[in-house]
Amino acid sequence: MGRTGLTPALAKRFRSGRVSLDFAHTAGEPELAEPELIDGAPALQRWLSHVLDGADVRVDADDVAAALRLRTALWQLVHARTQDRDLPRRAVDTVNRFAVAAPPAPG
Question: What is the DSSP letter of 31?
Answer without folding.
Answer: G
